[in-house]
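One chain given next:
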Amino acid sequence: MLGDFYYVNPTKLYFGENSLQYLQEELQRYGNKIMLVYGGGSIKKNGIYDQIMQILRANGKKVIEDGGVMPNPTVQKLYEGCKIASDNQVDFILAVGGGSVCDYAKAVSVSVNCKEDPWEKYYLRGEDVTCDILPVGCVLTMVGTGSEMNGGAVITNHEQKLKIGHVFKENVFPKFSILNPVFTYTLPKYQMVSGIYDIFNHICEQYFSGEDDNTSDYISEGLMRSVIHSSYTALKNPKDYEARSNIMWTATWALNTLVAKGKTTDWMVHMLGQAVGAYTDATHGMTLAAVSMAYYRHICPYGLHKFVRFATNVWSVSPEGKKAEQIAAEGLACMEKWMKDLGLAMNITELGVKEDMIEGLADATLLMEGGYKLLTHDEIISIFKASM
């Protein structure tokens, strides 16, 4: 490992079928007014809402609800959440849902006391927090983003056709997160596989970079193999606890900042996918899947040694008697087959992208410099066209 780094992650995790019981213990550390944040209302249908409300009431908490968080939280919703938190002088934000809900909760936590427009400050200018931060806790019901153990918060501005993530420092990380794999059983298949690919691509974004022999890459290969194995099991039986628990745990490790240490990282698939999401409001993991193959085939020649390693160590491609280019191509073909087996979106056309959007998508794609190739505007357009 050639890179210098420091590592800290202050989020406390409770994992397992009985993990919700620890919510009561955690609530005692915070004030009386709890802002309960959730999505479209599925937690009211599957019983999770009732379980949490029972715990909140038993602890004498005043609950202020903020429901309706959309899969791609908007800046308008962020402003709405800030007003709710401010008007009610909230002490703590409890996010119950998937990554979008957790992201949104963190965005509100750093914005409610912000004296400037948070979209301008955090997302357009990329500045750090300079105000008081509301503490956040998460009860996870969908896995994929790793938002339960990091400082990331992605917000979409449809008017500006931008979807931007800000990775805040550890003072914004959730104070605790509760991970019960059983809570993910009721997810529709589309959401489950979308989350699975989000996990896998988070690892890829941190894996496809660098030239050195890096411990983080060995960890990443193990995580990828685990995702692949467990995904097939979960596809056959969504209530297989072992598979769903492994997927949930892998999601956390994929983006709790550990495997990025000591190396550069890429993140261009996310930049491409987020541009698609800004235009179409498509599900995040599906936007990543739809651009991945075109992107990785484009950059493969520039990081050939890593794509060969990916093929042999992750997909068990035999290198015997083959040139490096053939090995790498076989690895990507294995990845593509797995993605199709899961039922992922394999092109951006099925997500609603039209030919006349391509130039705008390219303009909305932020450039990252950590991967094997710094893309030009023309290359971005070419990748989007190859993804149609």
In short: The chain has a mean pLDDT of 97. The two ends are 38 Å apart (CA to CA). The chain has two domains: 12-183, 189-386.
